[in-house]
Design goal:
The protein has helices at about 10-20, 25-30, 35-50, 55-60, 105-115, 145, 150-170, 185-195, 200-210, 245-255, 325-335, and strands at about 85-90, 120-125, 175-180, 215, 225, 230, 260, 270-275, 280-285, 310-315, 320-325. The chain is an alpha/beta fold. The strands form 2 sheets. It has a 6-stranded mixed β-sheet with strand order 4-3-2-1-10-11. Strands 5-6-7-9-8 form a 5-stranded mixed β-sheet, with helices on one face. The longest helix is centred in the middle third of the chain and has 19 residues, at about 150-170. It is globular, with a radius of gyration of 21 Å.
């Protein structure tokens, strides 16, 4: 069934904001509450509809504003790439950025690695930001709860991290994508219980990624490059992340394509044979936290975390070569020259 067209009032509202913000697409898109790419598409459509001229813009300003509920608009790619795609991908595990880790050199090193090695694409597997301000396990009326950062502090830290990444890229134009994780999903869990702030907190997160050209897909969705599916955590039939000591066996049993994921912070690289001389590869990227850093929730538990990033060569749509780069090696070699924010 084709997607029904948007009402004309949506395009008129887009035009009104376009002129209100002096034709600045970035500012107008942010005010509209939708992603930059979506807003730009609406402006192009408005031009085709004959709405984008000074006289019609004036008319649009006088239109009684209709109540239009604008939902977060993700850019999701579902196996649209050709199966024979071949790309070199810098794949980054859970970063868990937050104000408790003020040094952003690791992000600079990641960006510089991508530039100096001319990777074709960057995928961050989710939990880019910890968003500890919305941690629901430590109630705000407890001692630990009162030690949580504010949401503003979380987002300021995240902005510093992405800014450091782009300083490392130093102008290298490369597609960048985040498969949002359960920590970013805290924003929607919190908003669901506080509907008065719907579309406020998530738009701050989206605006930061939009400003630096990162696309994103929701928690649990697969993002495909060729026939390799990237996601923060594969979800089972009950909508829960696969768990257990050897959960990769369950993932491989149910998957029809190569899978790259994160979430557990434990590096994994296994190939599973399938009938008919076929096979799939399941990889876990570990974490890109600073070496030996353990998040507060995991202290005094069995961790065995792996710290680093992966350089993955996808050939003919399948995972081919892959190189594990420990985070300390990455920072030592590529972090030189970082002067802070």
């Amino acid at each position: 069934m084709p997607t029904p067209p948007l009402p004309k009032s949506v395009y008129e509202e887009s035009v009104r904001l376009f002129y209100e913000y002096d034709k600045n697409l970035t500012r107008a898109a942010r005010a509209s509450g939708v992603a930059y790419g979506t807003y730009s598409s609406r402006i192009r459509k408005a031009r085709e509809m004959g709405l984008l001229d000074e006289s019609s813009a004036s008319r649009a300003k006088n239109v009684v504003e209709a109540t239009v509920v604008l939902k977060p608009n993700y850019r999701i790619q579902q196996r649209h790439s050709r199966p024979e795609d071949s790309k070199r991908v810098l794949a980054i595990g859970d970063c868990h950025d937050g104000p408790s880790i003020p040094d952003k050199k690791r992000f600079f090193a990641m960006g510089r690695y991508a530039k100096e090695n001319q990777v074709d694409q960057i995928v961050q597997i989710g939990d880019f930001a910890s968003v500890d301000s919305l941690n629901r396990f430590d109630r705000n009326d407890t001692v630990k709860g009162q030690q949580k950062p504010s949401f503003g502090q979380d987002m300021k830290s995240f902005q510093q991290a992405i800014r450091a990444f782009h300083k490392g890229l130093d102008g290298h134009d490369v597609p960048k994508h985040v498969t949002l994780g359960n920590h970013e999903d805290r924003i929607w869990s919190y908003t669901n219980k506080n509907p008065e702030i719907v579309e406020m907190l998530d738009q701050i997160l989206f605006a930061t990624m939009d400003d630096y050209g990162w696309t994103y897909s929701p928690y649990g969705e697969f993002y495909f490059i060729g026939d390799v599916g990237f996601t923060h955590a594969p979800l089972n039939i009950m909508g829960k992340a696969y768990g257990g000591m050897h959960s990769e066996n369950q993932i491989a049993r149910d998957a029809l394509h190569d899978v790259v994921y994160g979430h557990t912070h434990k590096r994994l690289d296994k190939t599973f044979p399938k009938m008919g001389s076929q096979f799939i590869t399941v990889m876990n990227l570990g974490t890109s936290l600073p070496q030996d850093h353990v998040e507060e929730y995991a202290k005094h538990t069995l961790t065995g975390w792996s710290y680093g990033v992966y350089d993955i060569q996808i050939k003919d749509g399948k995972i081919d070569e892959r190189t594990w780069i420990p985070i300390n090696n990455l920072i030592e070699r590529y972090g030189e020259g970082y002067a802070g924010d």
